[in-house]
Specification:
heterodimer, A: alpha+beta, ATP Synthase, domain 1, 2 domains, five-stranded mixed β-sheet, four-stranded antiparallel β-sheet, 1 helix, rod-shaped, B: alpha/beta, Helix Hairpins, Pyruvate Kinase, Chain: A, domain 1, 7 helices, 6 strands, elongated
Chain lengths: 136, 289
């Protein structure tokens, strides 16, 4: 019997690469099982269980949202998302970053004003000195 | 001749500095290896992503997606990926030079600063910051960069940004890092790399569930995130190798300084011995005569 090559990759690294008899996964359209010589397929996965048979033994892993590709040469590639949790808070983090930048801009503006004020003060002092010298 | 005790003190100081720089060099070396390994480990995902995008692009020939199309409203954004810590040679200076020239060609450009160094740089030179991200973990993972990709994606989709570029140090080798300006939004057009591949894909006749277009829409954000993440990995590898090299130079300089000082010390010691001997000999001769 022909075998499938199952590869599971996440953004950071390759999680799994093994020879299997069959792969079952939950797609957005419902659960599917892939055997060898499956028609080339491209589909989206839902968070859930990915089961595969390695010989007689059944294995199961939990996968997050991702994509599943079946290539013509009996290759199954599962791309999972290792950052689903971060995605939920990413908008809040982005907003935080924007407000932090505004804070920095404000501080640096204050500092620049301070420097400018200092410079004009020095200038005024000099002018007074010059005027006093001339007056003498 | 300088005071011998002062010289001994300076030799000690140089020795202590070289110990510290040596330690920092070794720490950076191990971090660099880890960063390089992390950059290599992402290759399977990137390859899978590119392959899927190519077959999707081949399948749905009209790829009109807001992330792919240009629009005229909004400002240009540059994301500068700098470091949080210093002591890494001219790495950040090179980045900032490139940023200034980028700002010259994009007069209404704004900057998203990553790393404390670029925040400080923007403050001093009065560059308008749009957002800042500091103290990202050293071993950066894709979840750490999601906030940045979300920020630029949302801004681009709201037509607040016209284009988004990343400015970072590209890791060429341990000794060479090149500054790199990479436009990430609008996304470069995805084209199947060669005709043969397209033919093969068409022959294979993929089934797309739910549809090629829907999958493409969902996949493109991942593509953006992945390019941002890749840039971060490159920047980290560059940072650590630049720090390693500059610390190595510092240790070597300290060693040189120590050997120079030791020479001066020995000379002055010899001089004092000679002069004492002279004294003794003169006194003896005076007694004899």
């Amino acid at each position: 019997m022909q075998k499938l090559t199952l590869t599971v990759v996440s953004q950071e690294r390759k999680l799994l690469e093994t020879e299997v008899e069959s792969v079952s996964a939950i797609t957005t359209q419902g659960e599917i099982t892939i055997l060898a010589r499956h028609i080339p397929l491209f589909t989206q996965l839902k968070t859930g269980e990915l089961r595969y048979f390695e010989g007689e033994r059944e294995h199961s892993i939990v996968v997050s949202d991702g994509f599943l590709t079946v290539n013509p040469n009996n290759e199954v590639i599962v791309m999972v998302d290792s950052a689903t949790l971060a995605r939920d808070i990413s908008v809040a983090q982005a907003e935080e970053a924007i407000s932090a930048a505004k804070e920095t801009m404000k501080i640096s503006e204050n500092r620049r004003e301070l420097i400018m004020a200092e410079a004009s003060l020095k200038r005024a002092m000099l002018e007074i000195k010059v005027a006093q010298k001339r007056g003498l | 001749m300088p005071n011998t005790r002062q010289i001994v003190q300076r030799i000690k100081t140089a020795g202590n500095i070289s110990k510290i720089t040596k330690a920092m060099e070794m720490v950076s070396a191990s971090k660099m290896r880890r960063a390089q390994a992390a950059a290599l480990a992402t290759r399977p995902y990137t390859n899978a992503l590119n392959a899927s995008l190519q077959s999707l692009a081949a399948a749905s020939s009209t790829t009109v997606h807001p992330l792919l199309t240009e629009h005229d409203t909004g400002v240009d954004i540059a994301v500068i990926i700098s470091t949080d810590k210093g002591l890494c040679g001219s790495l950040n200076q090179t980045l900032f030079k490139e940023t200034i020239s980028w700002l010259k060609s994009h007069p209404n450009g704004k900057v998203v600063a990553v790393g404390k160094k670029s925040v400080g740089f923007a403050r001093i030179s009065g560059i308008e910051l749009y957002a800042q991200f500091i103290e990202l973990p050293d071993q950066v993972s894709s979840s750490d960069t999601i906030a940045i990709s979300t920020l630029i994606r949302e801004g681009f989709l709201d037509q607040e940004f016209r284009s988004v570029s990343l400015i970072y140090m590209d890791f060429v080798s341990t000794l060479v890092q090149k500054v790199c300006v990479q436009q990430v939004l609008p996304l470069p057009k995805i084209q199947a790399e060669n005709e043969a591949l397209v033919d093969k894909l068409n022959e294979a006749e993929y089934i797309f569930e739910p549809s090629a277009h829907a999958i493409l829409n969902n996949l493109l954000p991942y593509y953006l995130e992945n390019s941002v993440y890749q840039a971060f990995l490159e920047a980290r590898a560059s940072e650590h190798s630049a720090r390693m090299v500059s610390m190595k130079n510092a240790s070597e300089n300290a060693g040189e300084l120590m050997s120079d000082l030791r020479l001066v010390y020995n000379k002055s010691r010899q001089a004092s011995i000679t002069s004492e001997l002279l004294d003794v000999v003169t006194a003896l001769l005076a007694q004899d005569s």
